[in-house]
Amino acid sequence: MRPLLTLALLCALPSSSAAKSPLIVLDPGHGGTNRGAYGATIGQHEKALTLKLARRIAFFLRELKAPARVRLTRNRDRYLTLARRATLANSWSGTLFVSLHFNASQSRTQSGFETYVLNAKASDREASRLAQLENGTREQQPRGRDAVGAILADLEQRAMYARSRRLAKQVQGALRQARPKAADRGVREAPFDVLMGLKMPGVLVEAGFIDHPDESRELNQATTFDAIAQAIAKGITSYLRRPKKVARR
Q1: Does the residue 64 lie in any domain?
Q2: CB burial class (10 A; 0-12, 13-18, 19+) of residue 170?
Q3: Alpha-carbon distance 55 to 124, whole Å?
Q4: pTM of the prediction?
Q5: Structural domain count of the chain
Q6: How far is residue 20's CA from residue 142's CA, in Å, rounded to a whole number?
Q7: Gyration radius of the chain's alpha carbons
Q8: Which residue blocks in 121-187 are alpha helix, DSSP H?
Q9: Beta-carbon neighbour count of residue 17 at 10 Å?
Q10: What CATH number corresponds to the domain at position 170?
Q11: Which of 7, 34, 198, 200 has a CA-to-CA distance to 150 between 20 and 30 Å?
């Protein structure tokens, strides 16, 4: 069976029991005219790697027998607005949302991986810069901190922020184990538009720096790429299998 056909079957399970199971929404960042960051060393754009990564994560989720279905916001090279990605996830009644990206730096000297959750205030200047860069791809007018804060207030009432933090820690921890020699940039927070409006826990993963001469070569190796995909799948599976904790105020 061809890989794409296998993925299609995985993402559209027909049984009634499957319809009631949790739904993992994987969001390959960028696409179409929005090519994302460029890795000159490997001659690839971010949009191609994120789609490839989403497909490999879906494969490993099946291998790990994750107790959930999987659906991608895009299965091909097409443009989607940031708002549309969240709208799709909500319309599918997703259980969790993982947006996939590869980072780039102004100096092309930074490396490592990090996982983000939504917050009106960025963890640091670098997190703020990255959010502005990613949000700059949107078509709508920028939303201010007040709008983010209002959404977060609602998210906190439904414990979404706490659950997103738990999901981020599971994914970041699994990536740390898979890439012990790479820089662990931690769980961070920033006002990413793609995470706004979600009715489910959501995180944004920056799996590595596509513009770093050495790390980009590593990311382009099948063994490393699969290790990253498997780690993210493990993090998601661990999150789904752990008992939900009641948030304390």
Answers
A1: yes
A2: buried
A3: 31
A4: 0.84
A5: 1
A6: 36
A7: 17
A8: 125-135, 145-157, 160-178
A9: 7
A10: 3.40.630.40
A11: 34
Label residue 122 by pLDDT band (50, 70, 90).
confident
Q: Which of 210, 205, 186 is nearest to 124 (CA)?
A: 186
The mean per-residue pLDDT over the stretch 31-41 comes to 95
Q: Is the per-residue pLDDT at 57 higher than 90?
A: yes
pLDDT at 161 over 70: yes
Half-sphere exposure of 236 (CA within 13 A, CB side): 37
Residue 23's domain comprises 3-103+112-241
In degrees, rounded to 5, the angle at the alpha carbon of residue 199 between the alpha carbons of residues 15 and 175 is 80
246 domain-assigned: no
Residue 207 region, left (φ>0) first, then alpha (ψ -120 to 50), else beta?
alpha
Per the CB < 8 A criterion, the answer to whether 114 and 188 are in contact is yes
Question: Phi and psi (nearest 5°) for 30?
Answer: 70, -160
Give the integer Cα–Cα distance in Å for 186 and 184.
Answer: 5
Q: Could you tell me how many residues make up the chain?
A: 249
Asked, for residue 247, whether it belongs to a domain, the answer is no
